[in-house]
Design a protein that fits this description.
With 711 residues, the chain is of the alpha+beta class. The strands form five sheets. The protein has a six-stranded mixed beta sheet, sandwiched between helices. Strands 12, 13, 14, 15, 18 and 19 form a six-stranded mixed beta sheet that branches. Helix 10 (349-357) packs across helix 20 (671-681) and helix 17 packs antiparallel against helix 18 (616-623). The longest helix is centred in the N-terminal third of the chain and has 30 residues, at 51-80. The model is unreliable at 84-106, 523-546, 550-572 and 574-580 (pLDDT under 50). Bound molecules: adenosine-5'-triphosphate. Residues 121-124, 273, 368-371, 393-395, 398, 427, 430-431, 630-632, 634-635, 669 line the site of adenosine-5'-triphosphate.
Length: 711
Amino acid sequence: MVGKRSGKALLREEGLERTDNNMDLTTWPQINPINQKNYYTDFLKRDDQILPLRLLQEERRNRMTAKARDRDRELAQANTNEATPSGVDLDMDDDAGMEDAGEPLTGQDALGSKVIVIHPGSQNLRIGLASDALPKTVPMVIARKWSMSESEDDGGEPSPKRRRTDDGSQMEPEEMFGEEFASQYNRMCADLKIHMRSNKRRVLPNSKELIVNYNKRTPPETISEHNDPFRVDWTEIPANPKEAPGFLTGKEALRIPDKSIPRYKLFWPLRYGWYNESEYREKKDLYDDIATIIEEAIKTQLNLRRKKDWVQYGCVFVVPDLYERHYVSQTLEMLMRDLGFGKVCFIQESLAATCGAGYTTACVVDVGAQKTSVCCVEEGMCIENSRINLKYGGADVTETFVRMMLYDHFPYADIDLKRRYDFLLAEELKSKFCTMNEGEISPQLFDFHLRVSGQDTRKYTFKTYDEVLLAPQGYYQPTIFDNSQKLKGRRNLIDRSYDLYEGGPNDPVSSAQSAVISLISPIVSVNGQTNGETSNGHTAPAPIKLAPNMIQKINDSERTPASTVGSPAPDDDDTPVPTSTATEALATSVRDDVLPVIALDTAILTSISHGARLDERKTRDFLSSVMVVGGGAQISGFYMSLEERLKDLRPGFAKDIVIGTPPRELDPQGVIWKGGSVFGKLRGTNDSWIGKMEYDRLGARLLVYKCMWAW
Ligand SMILES: Nc1ncnc2c1ncn2[C@@H]1O[C@H](COP(=O)(O)OP(=O)(O)OP(=O)(O)O)[C@@H](O)[C@H]1O
């Protein structure tokens, strides 16, 4: 039996008892801790310890050595010829200076023939070599072999969606879009009449009835397919399903007959300037589709068919001003790994627009198909707090135009924007007939040809009155647009980006965007308390959790002059910016439940007031250089009407306000791409190029060093 023995006895038995012999426990030298006051390290503080910066320096050094070698060779040759070399600059320093000044490259690179510039959009992809004068435009769409086409999906529900009676039959045109639409549309019609009268324009009292009656009683005329000189070339799909391609992209995809056998479904991977999360089940499929569309465009439009040669090419990729970090890092991965470019760099849309048009200071307004962005650019930098991204564009005008026409008994009552030929038709009608010139409003007779694959062409005649102006008027009254589905699926597949150390959301924010969101819906404070009811029917948002140190950081920033959320405009005109603190600004910016949709003129003034930061001179500068680009602004009279509205809102600045257009020879839809191509040819951009080796080692972390803006 083991009796009770002390711990010491046990240790003694096992030979582990410590007997003190006054010797040190170890013979290793003991180092006293250094005094923390004198503590210093230059770890990661010098450029040569940071791989991307070191590579950059090495590259510069190599270039200079190569040049010096060339000069020496030329000098030696000249000496043997006993003559001074002509045109040789002996001063090396000059050359180094030029490099930093962003001088254009020389030789083949100067032409940009080894740089591909890519600007994707919700509807169109613009792509080309930096040496090209104009980009190629292809629809940003892919058709995949599917069980049903997109128009048969969702039970064949047409777009715009029509309401039905209880027994399933169709309602009268005046009722089928609901009371809300009807009353808003009628109010817009009445307001326009008043406005036209006050501008001394002739308004006939019964114009509307006249056109409605005409539309009601005009049947289409049938033209047999062989008598139609403009019949459409539909994409032919092999009859044998096994031979039918798995996918088709761009224009070819849009031209596949809706009823093709086998069926194809169209996917638009970018919607509203975001990833399209509502149409995809897996994010991998979504990423694959984007890569495939770009890959096919490079092969077919740029004629660069061998993918393994693309490593010799650089790629300039244009991203939104208010981008999401996941989008940029995923795009970088795609360009490096899937498409295999040798080097990649990014540029923001607004900055590219100013580069393309040759402006140094501007408030850039880009009206696209599904998103509209506003941003003030000053001396080569986007002003972060002036960035605004609104979720509407030309596609909303098309849809609203169709709804208004249907309300006024459009003879082609079956139109369904989910069908490919109807979508193309509606786009054509909008581009041809919509206008923002009040002077053009009168009852007008138009016609169009409906061309459906395998059917005879139908010629429709119809009349329009104020619909042609009221649909684009939606830019100033966006509640007329159908905004109900725009947040569908948001964050279903891809979460927002979070800071690795602090845990809070770290996607870029802007005080102007927060002001826009606050206008639409009340502010949610950081502790999750709402300051009121939502104003536009959105559900009450969930509180946003921010890490405590993040809150501290934002509160600190509130003390700096840069935080001007809610500051009044420099003049006495009303500024539509609500009061809010910077903490609230961040909280509002990261909200996903509110759709940023406000009138375009208000958005521009909000952006300028946040970009100019109370500086009256800057406000004038921005107001006198509002530059409008993008396809959505191509409606005739757009520039004039925007100028008038801004002047009405800011009479104090009326004589300064000028809407600038890109230089005459430049297509406003291609200006951003053009800016990307200019950027791709500049030597100064060398600092933004991300090479393969550094990407392999550091991945997306490189973006901190490589973006021209604060990543
Ligand atoms: N002449 C025109 N008149 C009216 N609208 C036009 C005209 N030309 C193009 N559009 C419209 O411009 C829009 C496409 O513009 P753009 O190519 O700039 O958009 P995107 O870059 O694809 O989209 P986003 O900027 O939303 O991502 C479409 O809605 C199209 O109907």
